[in-house]
UniProtKB/TrEMBL annotation:
It catalyses: (6S)-NADPHX + ADP = AMP + phosphate + NADPH + H(+); (6S)-NADHX + ADP = AMP + phosphate + NADH + H(+); (6R)-NADHX = (6S)-NADHX; (6R)-NADPHX = (6S)-NADPHX. This is ADP-dependent (S)-NAD(P)H-hydrate dehydratase. Residues 10-204 form the YjeF N-terminal domain. Binds 1 potassium ion per subunit. The lineage of its organism: Bacteria, Bacillati, Actinomycetota, Actinomycetes, Micrococcales. Coiled coil: none annotated. Residues 210-494 form the YjeF C-terminal domain.
Amino acid sequence: MIRAWSTDAVYDAEAALMATLPDGELMARAVEGLALVAAARLQECDGAAVAALVGPGNNGADALYAVARLAEAGWNAVAVHDEVVHDGARAAAEAAGVLLTTDPAALAEADVVLDGILGIGARPGLPPWAAAWVAAVPDTAYVIAVDLPSGQDPMGGALDPDGVFADETVTFSVPKPVHLLPPTEQACGILTVVDIGLDLAADPVVLRLDHDDVAALWPVPTPADDKYSRGVVGVVAGGEAYTGAAVLAVTAAVESGAGMVRYVGTPTPTALVRAAVPEAVHGPGRVQAWVVGPGLDVEATDDDAAAQLEVARAALAGGEPVVLDAGGLDLVDADLVRSRAGRATLLTPHAGECARLLSRLSAVVPGVTYWSISGQGDVTRAQVEASPVAHAKALAAATGATVLLKGPTTVVVGPAEGAPVWSQADAPAWLGSAGAGDVLAGVLGTLLAAGLPPDSAGALGALVHGVAADRANPGGPVRALRVANGIPDAVAHLLGRAATRSS
Ligand SMILES: NC(=O)C1=CN([C@@H]2O[C@H](COP(=O)(O)OP(=O)(O)OC[C@H]3O[C@@H](n4cnc5c(N)ncnc54)[C@H](OP(=O)(O)O)[C@@H]3O)[C@@H](O)[C@H]2O)[C@@H](O)CC1
Ligand SMILES: Nc1ncnc2c1ncn2[C@@H]1O[C@H](COP(=O)(O)OP(=O)(O)O)[C@@H](O)[C@H]1O
């Protein structure tokens, strides 16, 4: 598991450790690691010159000390700085023969650039005096951000398009939210963590499952299990308009290892599911979790659709865990929020659905106005994409449900105040295609039916979904059905990693 801590928690841990260490020891550790990484990258690109962008705080000091080390080791080194520079770092740089200048033209020859403009003490946004520095970084240079790319929000809230976009970020002891959360993760490049010995007492605020975590979480049957004990998933999906969603969700639930899948649909998707997934059984019945919504048309009024909708509403009124996806999200209203209080509910919107739902809930959930982040009426898709975590949290708070917000990075957050954010970035961009969300809903249904809580089920499902997409056709396009059919291979591969490690 990869964990990130808040900047406050990092400062607290730093203070506690510094009280036990000689002055400057902690920064020396950070500088040593940073200089080692930078030297390795200079060697890899056969570079001759390194440059530092030096801000006023300790982040600038890290970068300046590091280029002093590199100058001592024989590389040409320059440092671009503003008025305030850390005294000790300036002295070290001068002694090592680093060219100190305020002129960003000095960056022109740099093969590797260390961005030490701002670190975790930053307020989001690039300082005006640094804009010319960033503009002067050669396109060919390999940019290493020290702790985080300057201009980006350390807590990962919003991306600064004018800020630094690094090839690599070297951070200290532990990741911070900026490194793991959308939208700032995309500015960080490769993440390298240098251990400087911090001991974090606080709880992490961001969690990311790694491939090696899957074996401990994925529900693996024992000889004592049968189809019922493994978990039965009920899928209420598909209608006469969106027939394929039913096939995809049911297929994915079966391929993920559900003990049994019960399908409830209108005649056309029912016929398709019968033909495509002979393992599925038809009609409502006892289940351990429901998937409600892929391809569901809640506006349809014919008898078949009405009967299907009745099952959907009964599922939502019941006590079993529910994955509520796509068309099913249109069923969320104040009554539903009240009736599902305290029950496991996983909402799985994409950004557009999240925006619509937040906008709609403002009218019908009493007292819920605090999600209106923009303060400008309806929430838009673009706003959700610009700050996905804030909107996912707002939706979780408004509904009392766990929210899995889909996207290039999928975030999952529970409704409790201060709940950690799970952030998974396992999928190739090829996965963003119609039907892929229906597949994810099926996977999640199987995990909830096996007894996983909604947040870790969400993260685990997103990981496996992404790995299945990647392995189905590495580097190339992949259709949703193939992702669903690739889940058994992905799960076996991920479980096999544990077997390989323990042998
Ligand atoms: N913590 C650790 O464990 C360790 C930390 N280490 C290193 O220390 C770094 C943190 O250092 P730091 O606390 O000095 O903060 P940092 O970000 O360098 O600068 C803050 C300065 O910038 C200013 N400023 C802020 N935002 C601004 C803006 N948007 N536009 C303009 N100005 C802005 C701000 O001004 P003020 O808020 O005072 O107005 C203040 O002057 C950390 O990232 C890591 O590299 C390692 O050495 C060892 C272990
Ligand atoms: N750029 C991307 N990179 C990786 N995964 C993506 C990207 N865009 C979308 N996805 C994933 O593809 C799936 C699309 O789901 P969704 O939009 O609900 O599709 P549908 O409703 O058509 O099934 C989600 O799991 C989402 O996280």
